[in-house]
Design goal:
The protein is an all-alpha fold and 185 residues long. It contains nine helices and no strands. Helix 2 packs across helix 4 and helix 6 packs across helix 9.
Length: 185
């Protein structure tokens, strides 16, 4: 009998997604190890090299992580990082400096990057034309400092700095793992 067919275990796992105080972990130790690398921003081949496994093995673990934390199979790495950090499955990456001061529109973009995978959805959520999304994200990464390696790492650092999640600088709803498409209304 698998965990999915045992009602009490299924409820515990669903409860963990909804309540970060629940103690039942979603991920196996190896999945946590892979997810911990993801929030720091390396590519799958770089993760594979660090763990001395194949890139296909990393993909397999990431597929399982996406299933366990409830992101779609095609969710971006920043969305995945947001989900595992919001579920408190891994610690945010270390930061070598203080949090930068982001303006409201930059915080809105940061939250959109953490929630949505498609550039048009990020742009819609952040109030940007989709053709400006990539350059705006790159500017945000640069503003985060020289140690920030990209959008996924930025999401991880935002948790470390308390800008996303439940930290002192986070706003209500920042940890919500809403990775569905933005309505086009």
């Amino acid at each position: 009998m698998t965990w999915a067919t045992r009602p009490h275990v299924r409820l515990q796992r669903i409860g963990t997604l909804m309540n970060s105080e629940c103690t039942t972990p979603l991920l196996t130790p190896r999945q946590k190890q892979v997810a911990a690398f993801v929030v720091s921003g390396p590519t799958n081949p770089e993760i594979a090299k660090h763990l001395d496994v194949t890139a296909d093995c990393v993909k397999k673990h990431l597929r399982a992580v996406r299933t366990q934390v409830g992101t779609g199979p095609r969710s971006s790495q920043p969305v995945l990082a947001n989900a595992v950090l919001a579920a408190r499955e891994v610690e945010p990456p270390k930061s070598s400096g203080p949090a930068p001061v982001f303006k409201d529109d930059e915080r809105k973009l940061l939250l959109a990057v953490a929630r949505y995978s498609a550039p048009e959805d990020i742009g819609r959520s952040a109030g940007l034309p989709s053709d400006e999304v990539l350059s705006a994200i790159n500017a945000l990464v640069r503003k985060a400092g020289p140690d920030c390696t990209g959008p996924t790492h930025l999401v991880g650092l935002a948790y470390r700095w308390g800008l996303l999640g439940c930290g002192p600088g986070a706003r209500a709803g920042d940890a919500t793992r809403d990775h569905r498409r933005v309505s086009r209304a």
